[in-house]
Specification:
The protein has 186 residues and is an alpha/beta fold. The protein has two domains: 130 residues, Sugar-phosphate isomerase, RpiB/LacA/LacB (Ribose 5-phosphate Isomerase B, Chain: A, 3-Layer(aba) Sandwich); 39 residues, no CATH class. 44% of the residues lie in helices and 13% in strands. A five-stranded parallel β-sheet has the order 2-1-3-5-4, sandwiched between helices. Helix 1 packs across helix 5, helix 2 crosses helix 3 and helix 4 packs parallel to helix 5. Bound molecules: D-ribose. The site of D-ribose has 8 residues, from helix 3.
């Protein structure tokens, strides 16, 4: 289905989603996506999701991968962790509607799922839907994301008053391709 619309995708999990990650990687590659595996690279019941999710999230922000898939047992820890990285808009998604609308309206760039809460068929539908969706760029969504970006910028500067919803600006620029990002740096 996805050939011709292939993306460079990053994926990460702890032990709670290891089997699901392996299955999703095979499916992603089978339909033409390039997959960067941020681990875990083996099933280790003692591993910790931040050790894999943080590098994935940083790669998304850096433009090294276009979108991220973060998995843990429930998906909650992965979502909490990913959203600590400035520039990440991660959502815990277990339904088809949100996998699409999360991108179209909220410009979600990391989808989080639970390896212990959904099966591989549902997970694959969510991933396909997430990767096929594009941000609408609609004014109301730019306005809302501008408020989120404004808060993020205030917090980054350590300014008092962070938490106010000043309009801010949001260009929707997080959807550049990896090639475009490389070109801009050179
Ligand atoms: C690990 O056992 C589990 O806590 C983790 O994968 C995840 O579910 C956390 O949200």
């Amino acid at each position: 289905m996805t050939l011709g619309l292939s993306k460079r995708v990053g994926i990460a999990t702890d032990h709670g989603g290891f089997a699901l990650k392996e299955e999703l990687m095979a499916q992603l590659r089978a339909v033409g996506h390039e997959v960067v595996d941020f681990g875990a690279h083996g099933l280790n019941p003692g591993d910790d999701y931040p050790d894999f999710v943080i590098p994935l999230a940083q790669a998304v922000v850096a433009g090294q991968v276009e979108r991220g898939i973060a998995i843990c047992g429930s998906g909650v820890g992965a979502a909490v962790c990913a959203n600590k990285i400035p520039g990440i808009r991660a959502g815990l998604v277990h339904d088809h509607f949100s996998a699409r609308q999360g991108v179209e309206d909220d410009h979600m760039n990391v989808i989080c799922m639970g390896g212990r809460t959904i099966g591989p068929a549902v997970a694959w539908d969510l991933v396909e839907t997430f990767l096929a969706a594009e941000f609408s760029g609609a004014e109301r969504h730019l306005r809302r994301l501008g408020k989120v970006a404004s808060l993020e910028a205030q917090l980054a500067c350590g300014r008092q008053g962070a938490g106010t919803t000043s309009p801010g600006t949001y260009s929707g620029g997080g959807e550049r391709t990896v090639g475009e990002k490389v070109a801009r740096k050179s």
